[in-house]
Amino acid sequence: MIPTKASFTDKKYLVTLFFVTSLFMLWGIAITMADVLNKHFQHVLSLSRSQSAFVQFAVFGAYAVMGIPAGLFMKRYGYKNGVLLGLSLFAAGAFLFVPAAYTSSFAFFGLALFILGCGLSTLETVAHPFVAALGDQRTSDQRINFAQSFNAVGAMLGPLIGSYFLLRNNTPGSTDLTSVRILYLVIGGVIVLIAISFAMVKVKDTTDPHAVLADEAAVNVDVAPDKKLFEHKHFVWAVIAQFFNVAAQAGTWAFFINYGHEKMGFSDEKAGNYMVLFMGLMLLGRFTGTFLMRVIAPNKLLAAFALWNVLMCIIVAQGLGWPSYVALLMINFFFSIMFPTIFSLGIKNLGAHTQQASSFISMGVVGGAFFPFIMGRMADHFGVAHAYYAPIACYLVIFFFGARFYKVKH
């Protein structure tokens, strides 16, 4: 039988793909807004860099708590209801910023960020397998990277909005949290409107292509149906790789503004504005990676980008001025394809295990809860430049996953 050419998606899925892709942008805004909050709280709440890393701990720690419940909810109630649950938690967390700002309590902000993070975890758990299910699995890498490109758009908007509303008017000794309260009140309202709009959209029932063989030439079914989930080694390694991937991401992003301020002499607002370029390079990397995957195997591209980031981290840690700052910017270009590619390689050929696997890979994001503390302590004791030695270990793990441990075994 002559293999059929796999299309990017089917016409019947176009509307659904549009709405689900928009979710990637939403949590991109929220995640990078947290990095701006990290720096803002250092000012208005008089926190050290290691203390302010609790912002990332609250957001990414939520992934460890919500990953499995979100997967179970999705499995029982479907993709659409999973999305609505995620948006509801997202909005609730944003609205809690209002009383947190009135009390000036960092612990209260931590609770708000945790609930918001539960919403983000739910959206990520649902959206990745949802996008993967909207067509042939042979093109799932392309679809997920395409959707993640809009996550990068959101990641650019987050620091742009945050820098304008939070860092632009930072004054030494100020404890005013009015801008935080108003900003997150507006964000909560926008998310509520999006949730209402999505609830009114009729999403056609889809048959999960990971669970049903629609084409004998496709690789969209479990190649070892008798295996339990954790007996699939490529899945286990994907969880490990995702843990270290998000650890490196969270640490790098959390102290990006600090690096610009301390090593380049930028104001906080200017350093925050450079974060827009930083995220723009991630967007460029995702589009470039999606194109390159047509001629280079996704795992090989992943391994190559991981090695490039090892080199970038070494240059950043030297504190050489503009050469190191350019290397810091380029980290995001090479980071770009890592999350979606690890995700798509990890859920390959898992059949009925796909949704559960998605939960566990999403839980790997908890790496981002702990690593900023490590980098924060290093920055406090050795300087922010030397803290960038730490992510090298993370990128080596990703390299080995892409080079060897990604393989699906029968």
TrEMBL record:
Keyword list, A-Z: Cell membrane, Membrane, Transmembrane, Transmembrane helix
Major facilitator superfamily (MFS) profile domain mapped to chain residues: 16-410
Location relative to the cell: Cell inner membrane
Signal sequence residues: none
Protein known as: L-fucose:H+ symporter permease
Residues annotated as transmembrane: 12-34, 54-74, 81-102, 108-134, 146-167, 182-201, 235-259, 271-289, 301-320, 326-345, 357-375, 387-406
InterPro entries from the UniProt entry: Lfuc_symporter_FucP (IPR005275), MFS (IPR011701), MFS_dom (IPR020846), MFS_trans_sf (IPR036259), MFS_TsgA-like (IPR050375)
Origin organism lineage: Bacteria, Pseudomonadati, Bacteroidota, Sphingobacteriia, Sphingobacteriales
Membrane topology: Multi-pass membrane protein
Primary site of residence: membrane
